[in-house]
């Protein structure tokens, strides 16, 4: 009998209903399952390690991108499939997998067994993870110049690592507003920052020379679909083996309409949205520190961000449309 561990965030919206839906699918599939909640001290990683050590055949994560990221980090390169039951604010990873966000039963079926005819091992795909290491400023040296810390241990991101005003918007969105408004909480805060000053960022890509740009935000994408059907950078995929870097540099509020149209695939935003691909990227602060967000979670201020693509690192249960 297959063994499945369900790791869920009990504070996520609709958690109890999501658990019920998953357990109904488990019963149909004939698997054996146990539910393990996350806590503030253990947000998913320790539970995933325990699931692996107990010999679980698959793991289902219930929650938002933060919970899924914690579990995915542990499952990477193990071959153990991850099922995703979205129950968060933005659910960016679930959107990029093409999971049905409004059909709880269908989402549970895919999470447990994949979107395949019948039951059993189910349908899964190997997808990429982003990896990022952050470097902080630790004060001034004898000359008064800022010193950098050693790079922090590398961590994973599922969809995007961003520096600049998007990270400030994420930072400003309160937990209460996110629970009450969902994705609209980010939109409301971001709208108030549309005319905010740009950040000066020095970027280096693969083995190339560095270059400096002034941007409202610089986004390093593993995939780029966001709510309302937009893709910040169309035609990015979770399994293309590339990071997609977007420097968003609007000079007037009207430029945001061009960026939105480009995200919908109906126009170009030349001059205000620069796009390039790489397997490794370094973003360094030029004037002051850079605010950072990872998959919609604020990550503080850094002097440098080093990111790379980890190709095919994670096996995930996917819908039939993911191909």
Describe, in plain words, how this protein is organized in 3D:
- With 323 residues, this protein is an alpha+beta fold.
- It has 2 domains: 3-123, Rossmann fold (3-Layer(aba) Sandwich), CATH 3.40.50.10330; 129-311, Sandwich (Tumour Suppressor Smad4).
- It is built from 9 helices and 18 strands.
- The strands form 4 sheets. It has a 6-stranded antiparallel sheet. Strands 14-13-12-9-16-17 form a 6-stranded antiparallel sheet. Strands 2-1-3-4 form a 4-stranded parallel sheet, with helices on both faces.
- A hairpin with a 2-residue loop joins strand 16 and strand 17.
- Helix 2 packs parallel to helix 3.
- The chain is elongated and about 55 Å long.
- It starts with a strand and ends in a 6-residue tail after the last strand.
- Mean pLDDT is 85; it is low at 117-121.
Tell me the major beta sheet. Answer: 6 strands, antiparallel
**What does the overall shape look like?**
elongated
Query: What name does the CATH topology of the largest domain carry?
Result: Tumour Suppressor Smad4
> From N to C, what is the helix and strand string?
EHEHEHEHHEEEEEHHHEEEEHEEEEE
Q: Radius of gyration from the CA trace?
A: 20 Å
* Count of all domains: 2
Q: Total number of helical segments?
A: 9
CATH architecture of the largest domain: Sandwich
Q: What is the number of E strands?
A: 18
Strand content: 25-35%
Query: Tell me, what is the CATH class of the largest domain?
Result: Mainly Beta
Distance between the amino and carboxyl termini: 29 Å
Arithmetic mean pLDDT? 85
Share of helical residues: 25-40%
What strand order characterises the main sheet?
A: 8-5-18-15-10-11
Class from helix and strand fractions: alpha+beta
């Amino acid at each position: 009998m297959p063994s499945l561990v369900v790791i869920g965030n009990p504070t996520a919206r609709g958690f109890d209903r999501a658990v019920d839906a998953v357990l109904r699918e488990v019963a149909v599939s004939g698997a054996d399952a146990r539910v393990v909640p996350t806590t503030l001290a253990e947000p998913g990683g320790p539970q995933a390690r325990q699931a692996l050590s107990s010999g679980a055949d698959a793991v289902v994560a219930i929650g938002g991108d933060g919970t899924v990221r914690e579990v995915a980090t542990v499952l990477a390169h193990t071959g153990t499939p991850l099922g995703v039951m979205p129950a968060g604010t933005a659910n960016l990873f679930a959107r990029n997998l093409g999971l049905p966000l409004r059909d709880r039963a269908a989402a549970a079926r895919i999470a447990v067994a994949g979107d395949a005819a019948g039951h059993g091992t189910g349908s899964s795909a190997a997808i990429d993870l982003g990896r990022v290491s952050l470097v902080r400023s630790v004060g001034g040296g004898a000359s008064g110049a800022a010193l950098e810390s050693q790079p922090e241990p590398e961590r994973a991101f599922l969809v995007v690592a961003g520096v600049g005003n998007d990270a400030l918007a994420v930072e400003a969105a309160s937990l209460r507003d996110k629970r009450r408004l969902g994705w609209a909480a980010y939109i409301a805060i971001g709208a108030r920052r549309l005319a905010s000053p740009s950040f000066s960022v020095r970027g280096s890509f693969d083995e190339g020379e560095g270059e400096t740009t002034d941007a409202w935000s610089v986004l390093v994408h593993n995939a780029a679909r966001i709510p309302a059907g937009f893709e910040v950078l169309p035609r990015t995929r979770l399994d293309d083996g590339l990071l997609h870097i977007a420097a968003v540099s609007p000079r007037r509020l009207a430029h945001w309409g061009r960026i939105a149209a480009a995200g919908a695939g109906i126009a170009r935003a030349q001059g205000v949205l620069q796009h390039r691909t790489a397997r490794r990227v370094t973003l360094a602060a030029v004037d002051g520190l850079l605010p950072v967000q990872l998959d919609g979670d604020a990550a503080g201020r850094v002097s440098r961000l080093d990111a790379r693509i980890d190709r095919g690192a994670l096996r995930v249960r996917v819908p039939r449309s993911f191909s």
